[in-house]
Structure formats: structure tokens, C-alpha cells
Design a protein that fits this description.
This protein is α+β, with helices and mostly antiparallel strands and 187 residues long. It has helices at residues 12-24, 45-55, 66-83, 93-101, 105-116, 120-138, 143-149, 155-166, 170-176, and strands at residues 2-7, 29-33, 36-39, 61-63. It contains 9 helices and 4 strands, in the order βαββαβααααααα. Strands 2-3-1-4 form a 4-stranded antiparallel β-sheet, sandwiched between helices. The longest helix is centred in the last third of the chain and has 19 residues, at 120-138.
């Protein structure tokens, strides 16, 4: 078995698209998860090249270096945390990332900031705000329910953070829906 790491996989549709490309190339995947593919056997350089050519037009790319893989793992953990229906985060994000990735949070934070040009915290907030936008557009939950679901301490805190990031209050956003939601890999 061998593992390939793929950048920009952010949802279940991404998993299906990557699985489809693997099938087209005859590469048997034992497991396809966000950012990671476990193959039954190691891919040849030719197969990797063909896979790369197939993935790039779809917005994905193979990742070779350890630092890039680590950054993608950070993003994947954050996206999964935000997208989970009832994420019950009872620990700090820094503790969670350190525990999951087996690295000191300061190292993760500095690496992420250096490569991405933003902090892990700002990236986490951006992901949460995109989820808030999605839930506001669906119009199925109240702002209180959204705040609770995304672990905000209060509706006021969510509203202040939303306005700081988007320039609009949640109620104004809901009325005008001016700002389109961003794809998760563009956040």
C-alpha cells in the first residue's frame, strides 16, 4: 500500500471526483479521504504524472513535500470540524491540531502563516463564516441555532465576527444576499 496526498479536497464531492479519476486510470484505491488516497499498490511515476494531469484541471494537485501535506491536514481538520453537523468542540483548536498532527502548535501556526499568508485562527474563522453564510442562505435555522451549532458563545459574538469579516450583519446578508459564498478551497 502507498499513500498519495492531494491538495484542495474539501468535501464528499471532491472524494467522488478523485475516486472517479483513479478509476479511469486503473489505480485501485483502498481508501479515499479528504486530502489523502491510500492505494492498494504504489503508483508508478508515470501513473502519478497521469493522475496529476487529470487532477489539475479539476482544481486538485498532488502534494509531495511534508510541509505542504501538513498544511493540507490542518485545513482538512478545520473544514471537517466546521462542516460536521454537530461538532462538539470541547477543547481548543490549538490542542486539537497538536494532538491530531503530533506537532507543537507554535510550529504548526508558524508554518501555516508562512505558507498561507494568514493565521490558523483567521482561516478557522473564515471557514466558520462561510458555513454561517450557507446556513443563512438555506434559511432553515435561526441565528441562535446557527450560533449554537458552530459553537459561538453568543449570537452577539457571531454577529460581530460576521460583520467584521463580511462587512454586513447576518440579517442584512440574509436580506440582500449580496456576497456569494466562496468555494471552501478559496477561503
Amino acid at each position: 500500500m502507498s499513500t498519495l496526498f492531494i491538495k484542495n479536497m474539501v468535501c464528499t464531492r471532491c472524494i467522488m471526483v478523485v475516486q472517479n479519476e483513479l478509476d479511469k486510470l486503473g489505480l485501485e484505491a483502498k481508501n479515499v479521504r479528504l486530502g489523502e488516497v491510500t492505494l492498494e499498490r504504489p503508483a508508478t511515476e508515470s501513473e502519478k504524472s497521469k493522475l496529476e494531469k487529470a487532477l489539475v484541471p479539476l482544481g486538485f494537485e498532488l502534494i509531495d513535500d511534508k510541509k505542504s501535506r501538513l498544511i493540507e491536514k490542518i485545513k482538512t481538520i478545520i473544514i471537517q470540524l466546521v462542516q460536521q453537523q454537530d461538532n462538539d468542540l470541547k477543547t481548543n483548536l490549538s490542542v486539537l491540531l497538536s494532538r491530531e498532527l503530533h506537532h507543537d502548535y507554535n510550529y504548526l501556526s508558524n508554518l501555516f502563516s508562512e505558507v498561507e499568508g494568514t493565521t490558523i485562527e483567521k482561516y478557522f474563522i473564515a471557514q466558520k463564516i462561510e458555513k454561517v453564510k450557507e446556513l443563512l442562505v438555506y434559511d432553515e435555522l435561526s441565528l441562535s441555532e446557527i450560533a449554537f451549532r458552530l459553537n459561538y458563545s453568543s449570537v452577539a459574538y457571531l454577529s460581530n465576527q460576521f460583520k467584521k469579516v463580511t462587512g454586513l450583519t447576518p440579517s442584512h446578508f440574509k436580506q440582500v444576499k449580496v456576497e456569494k459564498r466562496k468555494p471552501l478551497d478559496k477561503v
